[in-house]
Each structure stands twice: as C-alpha cells, then as structure tokens.
Amino acid sequence: MNKEGILIVICGPSGVGKGTVCKEFLGKNRNIKLSVSATTRSPRIGEVDGVSYHFLETGQFEKMVENGEFIEYARVYENYYGTPKAEVLKNLHNGEDVLLEIDIQGAMQVKSSYPDAVFVFILPPSLGELRDRIVKRGSETEESLKLRFGSAYDEICKIENFDYFVVNDDIEKAVRQLDCIMMAEKSRVLRNKENILENFKEEI
Ligand code: 5GP
Known about the structure:
Blueprint: E1 7-11, H1 18-28, E2 33-34, E3 38-39, E4 54-55, H2 58-66, E5 70-76, E6 79-84, H3 85-93, E7 98-101, H4 104-113, E8 118-123, H5 127-137, H6 142-156, E9 164-167, H7 171-186, H8 189-202
Parallel strand pairs: 1-7, 1-8, 2-7, 3-4, 8-9
Antiparallel strand pairs: 3-6, 5-6
Helix pairs in contact: 1-7, 5-6
C-alpha cells in the first residue's frame, strides 16, 4: 500500500527568513517537494517564472480560482497568491512529502481541508530584528514595508492555530528543528497504523 505523503505548511511574517529556512531545509531533504505558488505580483530581480512562482495576470489567476484549481488562495499585500492543487495532490498520493510556504490566511484554508497537514510557524527573535531584516532586503517601498511590518504582530497572535514554532535566530538551528519536526511526524502512530499492522500480520 502506498502511504500518503505529509503536507507541511510553513508560515511566518514577511521578512522572517522563511524562504531561506525552507530553501536550506529542502536542500537537505531532496525527497520533499516544494509547491510552486501562483501569484499576480511582479517578479523581483532574480526570480524565475515557474521556479520562484508561476507569475500570472490577474485574469489568469481568477480563471484558475473559478475552475477550482487552487488548494487555497489569498490576497496578500494587494496581490493574489495561491497553491495549485493538481501537482500537490499528485505528489502526496505518490507518497511524497510536500512543503507549502504560504501566508496565514492560506494556511487556515489548508487546515480546514487537510487537517492532517503539519503547521509550522517561523518566528523572528524580536519585532525589532524583523523590521531590520525587511529594511535590509531593500525590495519594498516605504508603503509596502509599513504594511508588511504592521501585519507581523497580528499574524503572531494567531500562532495557536499551529502545531509547532521555530525561532529563526540561526538558520542552521532552524533547519535542524524542522528536521526534528518531520522525524516526529513520521513517527506518529496515526500516520503509520495500517502499515505497522500489515507488516506484523505478515509474520503471524
Ligand atoms: P512574497 O511577495 O514576499 O514572495 O510573499 C508574500 C507572502 O505571500 C508571504 O507571506 C508568502 O508566504 C505568501 N505566499 C506565497 N505563496 C503563497 C500561496 O500560494 N498562498 C498564500 N496564501 N500565500 C502565499
């Protein structure tokens, strides 16, 4: 029997470094597939269509919403972002683990339709540190910087909806913590019950 893969949902305020943590984590765990989101935001320098995001026109995005092609989607900082369904479900059914790096509105949608998913929230060491990181990134206008920083505390207040938190004060440590979370989740009896029973039954 092919066991379903685990769906891992990683959230955290803008600028917390979840992109870097996820990249390092996936680099160490090549068997985990990253879901490439669709967005109506314009590409930043260095971003590649189909790799960083699927960059879509608003009309194209809305068509996908109409056709029910997203697991979840949300409007974040004046743009649409969404997780295309087909690829994620295919990988999970093939027994492969899939990682979603999405915002909290999307995570809550996933939670209602995929309660078995693992929800991880990445925290900054402090709000001051978060602000410095966003400013340093230099990719935001003053307006969007205010917007992103303003939402950070509101998002942190919703942490009770998550299974685990990881403080990103050191990338390596954060990645190790994610490794441990995955190991713990893979050892859950509920996820393995049928396989365990099947294996032992064969020996009787
Ligand atoms: P950025 O514009 O900085 O790449 O992303 C802005 C926010 O959108 C981040 O919090 C990111 O996690 C979130 N995001 C990226 N992809 C998705 C997605 O597919 N769905 C949702 N709901 N949020 C996403």
